[in-house]
Design a protein that fits this description.
The chain is mainly α. The protein is built from seven helices and no strands.
């Protein structure tokens, strides 16, 4: 029994260590992909930045494309996991839920920084068809979560009944994504300030007249 427990402990420890190593590699790769682009970043570049040989990367990832995919997947899944409870919170009004949804997305994106844009835009073209399909599915799911809130608001009368909910969702996502280009941590507006302003602008446009 003692031997079995010890073996289990070692397996858990090794699994945790491997997960931590993968996470560290992904973080380094995201920075390099943002700075130099996917094409301009080699596995050797990533390995050197991590402090080991390029061959060691294959212990964690099958290819550079696999690394890019897992980086995108990780960030999007983290975002979606935070937004799911907000979309499903029927105890809050649609206005409260939409505000919270926007606040979470804006603050996460601006804390992560400009490199976050890669997850949605520029480097997705380098994914294999299968991986691209999965990332697009995650992005679509994000939109569906917000769409649920907007549609609920139309039913409750919080939002105008004649608004195009899908257009509203696309517009909100676009506004949030653009903030990464001009936001500065040293500027006069904090991520929360920006989130509040985005919420005010959006809500003013979709409330019943």
């Amino acid at each position: 029994m003692v031997k079995s427990a010890g073996t289990g402990y070692k397996l858990r420890k090794n699994t945790a260590k491997r997960a931590a190593s993968k996470a560290a590699i992904i973080s380094v790769a995201i920075d390099l992909f943002w700075e130099n682009g996917y094409i301009g970043t080699s596995l050797r570049d990533i390995a050197e930045a991590c402090g080991f040989e390029a061959a060691n990367l294959y212990n964690y990832f099958q290819s550079k494309e696999q690394l890019l995919y897992e980086a995108m997947q990780e960030e999007l899944e983290r975002l979606v996991a935070l937004l799911e409870p907000v979309a499903a919170d029927v105890r809050s009004t649609p206005i409260e839920r939409l505000k919270k949804f926007i606040e979470i997305h804006v603050e996460i994106m601006l804390v992560i920084g400009r490199r976050y844009k890669m997850m949605y835009d520029s480097e997705i073209r380098h994914l294999s068809p299968v991986h691209k399909k999965r990332i697009v599915a995650l992005r679509d799911y994000y939109s569906e979560l917000m769409l649920t809130i907007v549609e609920d608001g139309k039913k409750t009368g919080d939002f105008a009944p004649d608004i195009d909910a899908k257009f509203v969702v696309l517009m909100i996502a676009s506004i949030i994504m653009r903030t990464v280009f001009w936001f500065s941590p040293k500027g006069r507006l904090s991520p929360r300030d920006i989130a509040d302003m985005v919420c005010d602008i959006i809500l003013e446009g979709i409330r019943p007249r």
